[in-house]
Fold these 3 entries.
Entry 1:
Amino acid sequence: MAPITPITQHAFDVLIVGSGLAGLSAALHLAATHRVAVLTKRGMSDGSSAWAQGGIAAVLAKGDSFDAHVQDTLVAGAGLSDPAATRFVVEHSPESVDWLRALGVPFSEEDGHLHLTREGGHSARRIVHVTDATGAAVQKTLIEHVRRTPNITMLENHTLVDLITRRKLGLPAADGQAANQCLGLYALDEVTDEVHTFSAPHTILATGGAGKVYLYTTNPDTATGDGIAAAWRAGCRVTNMEFIQFHPTCLYHPHAKSFLISEAVRGEGGRLLLPASAGSTRFMPQHDARAELAPRDVVARAIDFEMKKGGFDCVYLDISHQPLAFIREHFPNIYARCLELGIDISKQPIPVVPAAHYTCGGIHTDLAGRTDITGLHAIGEATYTGLHGANRLASNSLVECMVFARSAATDIVVTPFPMPPALPAWDESRVTDADEAVVISHNWDELRRFMWDYVGIVRTNKRLERAAHRIALLQGEIQEFYAHFHVTRDLLELRNLVQVAELIVRSAQARHESRGLHFSRDYPEMAEKAVPTVLTPD
C-alpha cells in the first residue's frame, strides 16, 4: 500500500511500541530528557510481562556469583549464548532489581531479606519474586509510575502497521547518516479505525514474542510477533528464530486458557508423574540426572516423549507433599486458580502439557539495543541479544528486558538525531472494507495448527517442507487481502504471524543438527561447532 501526500503528523522524540516491562522501563529512563510516546495495541497490562509468574534472576545471595550465573546461562543456551552479552546482563541484573525495589515493587521477603527461590537450570537460589505473580506486580508498579510521568504519552489500542524508513520512501541518506534510517511508523487507531502517522528520530520496538503462531501457548493474545515482522520487512536481520521455548507445564484443563504452572513449582520440589493409569510413576530421573530441575527444553521433550509413548493427553505435576501453608504462601495464584477449576493442588497433582512459551531468537541487536537500521532500537523478547542462545534459562527474560531498556535509553540520550522530515500519510484511497472476514479467522486457525503439528517440539525435514509450502500459500492470500482491504488488527496480526512462521521454518531448515530447543529426527546429533542462524532480508 503506497503512502501519498504529507499531512500533519504526530511527532515525538522517541516512539516505543509495546507496554511490557521492556517498553515501560525504557520510557521511564527516557522521560526526563525526551518526549516519549508508548503505543500498545490493547491495554497497557495486556502483554506477556504481566503473565510472568516465576521471577527475576539476579545474583543477590551470599555464596552465589556472577560467574555461576553466567555459567548456568551458557549451559542452558547449549553453546549458543554469547559470553559477552551474557555477562553484560548478569552483571547488570542486581541494579535492575534495586531499581524496581526503589520504584516500590513489593518483592517477597523472609526474615527481613528478599526471598530467593531456585528454578530449573540454576545452581543457586537467585530468583527474586512477588509470590507467584511477579510480572503482574512489576507491571502494576511501572504503569502507576508511567501514568504519573508528564513526558510520557500512552496510546492504547494502537496497532503497529509498519515502520517508515528512508529506504522505503526512496529518500536519500541525511548528512552523516546511514542509508536506511527509521523515521517513524504507521499505527492503526482502533478507536477511530484510522491509520495515523507517527514520526520520531528514535523508535524502540518492545513488542514481545510470537507464541500465538502455535496452537497451544502460555502467551497472551498479543504475542503475534509484530515487531519481529515489521523489523524484517524494514530490512533488519533476525537470528535464531528456530529456537522456540516450549514451557513444560501449562495447565491442561478445558476451561483454562494458557495458564502457566510456574517453573518454581518444580524448583520447590514438584515432581512430574505419569497418569494414574500408568502407575503415577515419576519419569524425569530416567531422562536426565537433574530430573525435574533440568532445563526447560529437556523437560518439555521428556513430557512430549512420555505422552506420545503412552498415548496420554497430559502428565501430572505433584506438589501435594508440601504443607498447605507452604503452597498458599509460595503459589497463591496457582493454588486459587486450580481450586476454581476443582483441583486442590495440596491434595492432588496438577494435569500439565507443554506449550509454546518464549521466542529465544528475534531482531538482531547489539549491547545498546541497536538494530541494523539507524534510529531503530529493539529490546525484550522481540530481540536476539545473544543471551538466550539455543534455550532460555528460567527467569532470565525479565532481567534482560530491564538491562537492555536501560542500555538502549542511554544510547538514545547520547546519540541525538534531528527530527524527521514531514512523512506521507497512509493511503486508503484504493481499498474497501473486507466482505469475507472468515478468510482471516480460517487462515489464522490453519497456521497455528500446522505450526503445532509440523514445527513443534520435535521436527523433521518432511514436516518443515510441508509447513513451508502452506506458509507460501497463506502469504499469497494474506498479501492480496492486505493490498485490497482496509486494515484491521486481526489482519495485521495474521500478516505478522505468517511472516514469523516463515522465519521460524527457514531457520529450522538451515540448522542441520539438534541443539537446545531445536530437535530434529533427521539430525539427532549436536554439531561440533555452535553457529547462530542469521537470516538477512533480500
Note: The longest strand covers residues 350-359.
Entry 2:
Amino acid sequence: MDRIVRLQVLLLCGMSLLVLRLAHLQIIRGGAYRQLAEQNRLRVVPEQAPRGLIVDRRGRILADNQTIFRVTLVPQELKDLPAVLARLSPLVGRSPDALQREYRKARSLAFIPATIVSRVSKETALRLEEERWRLPGLLVKPETVRHYPLGSTAAHLLGYLSEPTAEELPVLKQYGVRPKQLIGRLGIERMLDHELRGRPGGLMVEVNNRARQVRVLGQREPEAGSRVELTIDAQLESLIEQVFGSQPGAAVVLDPETGEVLAMVSMPAFPPGAFAELEFRTIRRLLNDPDAPLMNRAAVGVYPPGSTAKLMTAAAGLEQRLLTPATSIPCSGALTFGDRAIHCWYRDGHGPMNLTEALMQSCNVYFMQLGRRLGLSRLRTAMEMVGYGRRTGWPLEERAGHLPSRRLTEGEVALLAIGQGEFLMTPLQGAVMAGAFANGGWLVHPWVIRSVGARRTSRPPGRRRVGWSIETIEAIRKGMRAVVQEPSGTGHRAFTPAVSIAGKTGTAQTHVPDQSHGWFVGYCPVEHPRAAMAIVAEHGGSGGDLPAEIAKAICEYIAAPETL
C-alpha cells in the first residue's frame, strides 16, 4: 500500500507540474508564442522604391533609374535543378556550374527568388520568357537600378551607391534599409539619401510549415523618392571636363552674387553607374587607382595657391596704406634674406613696377618686398579675411586648407606673400575669394541644392563683408583685367573678344621638380560678373597655360545667349 500511495503522489505531482507548465505556456506566455507563430506564418517580399531623380538647374537629368532584367529561380517551384540549369546555360551564356554557384549563394527562403544572373539584355529576357514553360522555377524579374545618363559628368557632386556593411546595417534598419539595398556613399546621393530613397513596398504572403508560399494576403506599392534640383549647369560641367582632357585637376565656377555653384569639376572622374550596377572589377580598379579618382579635388584637394595669393597681399598693402596703386617698387630679379636669395620668375628683373604692372607680370620680388613690410601677422590676417584656413560652409565634403600658425622667418614670410610655403587652399576657397573681388567685397557661402521635392531653397545662405575699401577693390580689379587683356599679361591666353575676363594666374612649386600646379582665379564678364572661378591643373605647369584656356572656355559659355 505504501508503494501505491507513493506512486499516486508522484503522479499527482507530475500532473500538477504539467498543468502549471501548460498554464504558463497558454496563459502567461500565450500572446508571445501566438505572435511568433504569426511571424512564422507571414512573410514580407520587399519591393524597393525607385530613387528620386537628380536634375541640373535647367532640368537636365543627372541621375535617374532604368529597368534591367535579372534571371532568378524560385526554390519552391524547382523540380529538377540540374536540368533547368543545363537548359538555361546556353541562353544566358554561363556554365551550369557557375549558375549553380550563384544559386547557392543567393538562395534564402523557398518562395524568395534567388538571382543567378544579375543582368541580361531585353532580347534575352524575352527569349527566356518564351522558354519559361520548359523551365519550371524560372522567373525573369524587371528591376529599377540607378542610372547616370551623362556618365562621369558631375560624378563627385552626385556621389555613388553601395550596399551597407554588416556594422552599418543594424542602425540603418531603423530607417527602413534592408540587406543588399544600395545607399548613398558620397555627394548628393549620401547627403539626401533618405529623401531620394523613397518608401519601399512589397507583398505580404502566407507560408506553410515548410516555408512555402500559400497565398498573397496584401500588397503595398512603393513610393518613389523626391526629385532633387541642383544649381549646377550640366553642359558647363561637361565642357570643363572636355577641356581638362586627361589632366588631373579641379575647377569651381559659382555665381559671385548668390553663391550658387554652377560647376564643380574634379579630374580624373569616375563612372558612378559602376557602383549601382555592381561592376566589381571596375570598382576595385577605382579604389586602387593611385590617381584617387573618387576624391573630389575641388573641395577636398588642397594645394599651395602660388601667385593667386598676391591678390590678398596687394589688398593688405593697400588697406594698411603701405602703398598706393601708383607706388613703384623695383625688381632686380632676386631678393636676399640672410644668405639665401629668392629669385623672381624673370631672372633679369622687371625693374620699377606699380601695382597694376606687378599683378599683370606676377612679379615675385614686388610682392615679397610688400610681404616683408606687412609682416606675418597682418599678412595672415589678410588671408583669413577671405576665408583661407577655414571651411567655406559648403554642405558636402570639404577641407579647410592650411595657414601657418607658428612664427616664420623673414624669408618664410616673403614666400607666404607669394603663395608658397606652409599655405594650402582648395579650389572652392579660391572661387569664393575671386567672387569677393567680382561682387565688391562680399564672401558668399557656396550652395548647390535648389529644391528637394516641393521644398525649394527660399534664398541664398547668406554672405559677409570682407572689409576692403572700394578703392582697394578697384585697384586690384584693374590689375586682374590687365592680367588677361594685356598681351604681356601672364593670363593673356584666356583673352577672347567674346567676353571681358579678369583673372590672376599662379604657378605653385611642388616637391616634384618641374611639376608645378597651375592656377587661374578670376571672374567674367568684367562689367557685370556672372561667374567667379578657380581652376587648378595638378602638376600641370604654368597657370597661364591650360587653366587660362579653361577659364576662356568657361567665360565664352557664360557669355553665350540662353545660358544659365
Note: The longest helix spans residues 2-28.
Entry 3:
Amino acid sequence: MAVTSSATTSGAATSSAPVAAGPLRSFIAGHWVAPGGRETPLLDAATGREVATIADGELDIASMVDFGRTVGHRELAELTFHQRALMLKALAQHLMSIKDTLYPLSYATGATRSDSWIDIDGGIGVLYTYGSKGRRDMPNDTVYLDGPAEKLGKTGTFYGQHLYTSLPGVAVQINAFNFPVWGMLEKLAPAFLAGLPTIVKPATASAFLAEATVRAIVEAKILPPGALQLLTGPARGVLDHLDERDLVAFTGSASTARTLRRDDAVIVRGTRFTAEQDSLNCSILAPDATPGTPEFDLYVKALVTEMTAKAGQKCTAIRRALVPESLREAVIDAAQDRITAKVRVGDPRTNGVTMGALVSTAQRDEVLSRVHQLIADGGELAIGNIDRFAVTGADAEAGAFLPPILISSPASADAPHRVEAFGPVATLIGYSDLDHAAELAARGRGSLVASIITHNPDSARHLTRALAPWHGRILLLDRDDAAESTGHGSPLPHLVHGGPGRAGGGEEMGGIRGVLHHMQRTAIQGSPNLLTAVTDRYVPGAPIRTRQTAHDDIPWEHPFRKPLSRLRIGDAVQAGPRPVTLDDIEAFAHTTGDMFYAHMNQQAAEANPLFGGRVAHGYMLISWAAGLFVDPAPGPVLANTGLEDLRFITPVKPGDEITVILVAAQITPRETDDYGEVRWATTITNQRGETVATYTVLTMVAKQ
C-alpha cells in the first residue's frame, strides 16, 4: 500500500541527525573488536540517512563466555551485594551525567524526546532502584537467605535453611529493538547484583544506541572486568557455548523464543531460559466509567498514550481496548478528538512533534500487514488513514511513519486476540458484561499487563480476580491514583515485568525477586551450629556466649560494649529472673491507659479460653526485657531502630518470673558509614522454661 505525505516544513529541528558512526564493534574480553564481513547500513528511522553500519562476520563467542565465567565471575564473586549495589548507583550517576550524548542517537531510532526519556532515563532509574534495594533489602554478604531457618526435628538439633548463591556462569541477554537502553539496563542490574556477568546482544535496528551506551559504561571504569560484554552483529551459535552454569534472557517474538527454547543448550545442557515475548495487552473500561467521569477521560488518555508513545512499539502497549458495547462510539469520538488535539507525527527532532517514526521501514511494512489481517477479520478502520497522513519535518516516504490507528472489531472476531501489530495500533472491542470482558481478556492467552479503569470497588475486585491468572501485572486506575500512577505501559523495577502463556512466562525485575532469579537456591540441612557457620546468621540451638557460659580464660563482655569489629554471631546476654506482680500489671495499665479486660478484670479474664485469669501486658514484658538486657552506658550501640517478628506465646500471670536471652544473630556493616545493623534474636521465658515471647531487636552499632 502506498503511503503519501502531506509533510510540512514547520517547526525548527532541535538537533541535527547524527553523523554516520561507521561499523559497530563488539566488546569482547576487555577489547573492542570489529567483526568484519559484509556491512549493512543502519538508517535513521525518520530521515532514512545512514547512522552506522553493522557487519555479519563471525565473532569469538567462546572467548566471551570463557572471559565472563573466569575473570567476570571471579571479580564479582569477591564483592558483596552492598558493594555491587554501590557500583550500580555510581554507574547510574555517571550515565545521568552523560545522557545528553545519547539523545541524538535515540532520535535516530524514531523516538521523540519523551520516548527517549522513557528509554534512557528510565533505564538509569532501574540502576538507581537496584542500587538502593541492594543495600536496603539484601545483606552485606555474598549469599542470600530465603526466610528463617526451619526446625526439622523435635529436639531442635536439626534445621533447614534455603540459601541463594551466585551462578558460576554468564547471563546472555538478547534484547529487542524498541528500548535499546532500558531493555539492556533492566536486565543488567539484577544480574550484576546477583554476581552474574552479562553478555548483551542488542537488536540490530537500534544497536548503535546500545553500543554507545556500553561504550559510556566501559569508559567510566566503574564495573569490574568481565562484568559486561557486548555482542553486535549476528548471534549465530551463541547458545552452543552455554550450559547449566548459564542463563539466557530473551525479549522478542514468540517464534524466535520458540527456536531458542528448543536448542540443546536449554533442553539437554540445562541452560536457564526466560522469555518476554508477544503480548496482546488489554485495557478494560468498566461500566461505571461513562462519558463525563474522570475515569472515562483517563481511559481515553491512556489509550492514546499507549498508541503513540514509542510509536506504539512497546511490549506493554494497549493492543485490545475493551469497552461496554454501548460506549464504543463515545470512546472512538473521544480518542479521535484527543489525537487531533495532541498528536503530531514527524521527525522527533522537530519542535512540536509528539510521535516519531517506527524503528525501520521494514517494521512499518510489517505493522501494515498486521493491520490488514485485523481488518480482514471484520475490523473497521475507526481512526487513522493509512494511505495519506500528515508528517511534520520529514519525508513520509523516506521515514518509517504511520499515524495512530484504531480498528473497531466485533466481539466475535478472532484476529484481535491472535495478531499483534507492533506499532501505533489498537483494536476496540465491545463487551456485554464484566464476565464477557474477562473472557475477552483471557483470549489473549496470557499478557504482560492489563489495566482496569473504574471507580467501583466491586468491579475492580471482580475483574482483577478474573484477570490475574492471565497477566503478569494489573493496573487499577481511577481518579484517586491517577496523579501518581505511572501508567498502563510502564514496568517498574520494584514489580515483576513478565506474563504467563503467550507473554513467555518470564519474570524480569520484580525487585529482589529479579536478583534471586539469577542465583541458585539450595536447601541446606544440618545442626544449628553448622548452619550458623554456613549462613552467618544465628540459628536457635547454636552455641552462645553469655556470662553464664563464659570460660575463665575468655572473660565475658556485654555485647553492647562491643563495636562491630569485635562483635560476633552468638555473643549474648542472659538476664533475670524478674518477678511479675499484680501491682506491676495495675501500674502499667494506669501508666499506659491499656485497660484491656484480660489485664484488669479477673472475672472476664477467667472466662477467656486463652488466659483463665488476669495476665501481664505483652508490651510490659518486652519493656522489662529491655531493662534487663540493656547496658546503659554510652558505647558502640547507637540506636534501637525497630523490632520485628514479635510473637506472644505463653501468657504470664501474677507470680510468674521472666528471663530474657538476647543473641547477636546477624551483623551487617554498611559500606559507606561508620556503623552497621545488628539483629538480635530475643527470647523471653518463664520460671518453667516455657517460651513467653520471641522477637528480633534491631540496633545500629558503631564499627569501631
Note: The first strand starts at residue 4 and ends at 5.
